[in-house]
Design brief:
- This protein is mostly helical and 115 residues long.
- The protein has a domain at 31-70.
- It is 59% helix and 0% strand.
- The termini are far apart.
- The mean pLDDT is 81.
């Protein structure tokens, strides 16, 4: 009699445990839960990228200081300001008035015209 009671209780406990496990897994696979997990991963990845960018910037500043000392360029480096940019192409001159357009030569798009 005790043997049957033991196995009945063990089976009921195993059933409750398995049901709980299955329900937890099903809740993890709902669209809302998957979206929340994806958002958490995206935020975590963003923090990692930000940390990487800060490490790269710190290394750049340190290396520029080393090279500046080696080359005798003792100019102070401000890590908050970007370096001076040299443009390869000059900017176009602004138009006389923002609403005026340059007149282009007329060209017909009609391919049936006689040439």
């Amino acid at each position: 009699m005790f043997r049957r009671t033991f196995w009945f209780t063990a089976g009921a406990a195993a059933g409750v445990w398995a049901t709980t496990k299955v329900n937890r897994k099903l809740k993890q696979l709902t669209p809302e839960s998957l979206a929340a997990q994806a958002a958490d991963k995206a935020i975590e990845t963003g923090h990692k990228l930000k940390d990487f960018a800060l490490d790269v910037r710190e290394g750049m500043v340190r290396r520029e200081a080393e090279l500046g000392g080696a080359l005798g360029l003792e100019a102070p480096v401000d890590p908050d300001l970007p370096g001076q940019r040299h443009w390869a192409v000059e900017a176009p001159e602004p138009a006389a008035h923002p609403n005026t357009y340059r007149k282009l030569p007329y060209k017909s798009n009609n391919r049936n015209e006689d040439h």
